[in-house]
Every structure is written in structure tokens, then in C-alpha cells.
Design a protein that fits this description.
Strand order of the largest sheet: 1-3-2-4-5
Strand content: 15-25%
Region (Disordered): 111-130
Protein name: Thioredoxin domain-containing protein
Oligomer: single chain
Largest sheet: 5 strands, mixed
Radius of gyration: 14 Å
Keywords: Redox-active center
Number of domains: 1
CATH superfamily: Glutaredoxin
Family: Belongs to the thioredoxin family.
Shape: globular
CATH class: Alpha Beta
Mean pLDDT: 87
Pfam family, one: Thioredoxin
Low-confidence stretches: 112-130
Order of helices and strands: EHEHEHEEHH
Number of strands: 5
Length: 130
């Protein structure tokens, strides 16, 4: 299940989160948003509590849409400790999205969790751009 977030709950659920948050900006009329939804649910299940997945209706949360300068839907933004680490938009297809999600997962899901190596991996995520 994807947690629905609004402008009212954004700070608490996303910016103040203790785990990285993948924010899915979409809209009910967006066909591609509906298509990627099952892929995001699968990603969320695979990540467990290591990465939080939230959804934001871009039409109903205009301030957030402007703040994050949305150009197209869907737009996925990975936020960690209140900072944008990665932005995913303009998908070329299902495989393009799956590859991007896999890279995110590999950067954050590590067993056993080693603080110094996970910090280094997170630095790599921030340098990737899509």
C-alpha cells in the first residue's frame, strides 16, 4: 500500500522521515501513473522498511508540484533527510523504470547494514541523474 501524502502531511511524512522516501507525483487522469503503480508496489514490498513509498496527487497539491518543479507525470523523487537525492521522470518504458528502481534498491538495501558503506552507497545515488 502507498501512503497518500498532502501538503499538510508532507513535512512529517517525507522531509522528517528517518528512512529515504520515494515520492510518486501523479494524477488520476495520468495513464502512465496507473501503469507504473503495480511496479511501485512491488518495489515497496521488496524494500520493506528501508525505503518509504508515498504518493502525491499533483493536481490537489499545487504548491508541492511547483516547489518540486514538475514537468511531467509521473515524476518520482527520492528524498533522504529532507534533501532530493534522485529524480526520475520521462520514462522510456517499463524496463527503464525497473532499472532505475533496482539501482535505488541496491544503494539502500544492504545486508548486513554497515553505516560507513551505506553512506558511501548513498553518495553514489545522489550523483545519478535521469
Amino acid at each position: 500500500m502507498v501512503l497518500s501524502v498532502s501538503e499538510r502531511t508532507f513535512t512529517q511524512e517525507v522531509l522528517e522521515s528517518h528512512v529515504p522516501v520515494l515520492v510518486n507525483f501523479g494524477a488520476p487522469w495520468c495513464g502512465l501513473c496507473r501503469i507504473i503503480h503495480p511496479l511501485l508496489l512491488q518495489f515497496s514490498r521488496e524494500c520493506g522498511k528501508e525505503i518509504k513509498l508515498v504518493g502525491i496527487n499533483a493536481d490537489e497539491n499545487f504548491k508541492l508540484s511547483n516547489q518540486y518543479r514538475l514537468k511531467s507525470l509521473p515524476t518520482l523523487i527520492l528524498i533522504e533527510q529532507g534533501q532530493v537525492r534522485q529524480r526520475l521522470e520521462g520514462f522510456k518504458g517499463r524496463e527503464d523504470l525497473l532499472d532505475a528502481l533496482e539501482r535505488i534498491k541496491e544503494s539502500y538495501i544492504q545486508t548486513p547494514r554497515n553505516h560507513s558503506s551505506s553512506k558511501a552507497a548513498r553518495g553514489n545515488v545522489a550523483s545519478n541523474s535521469f
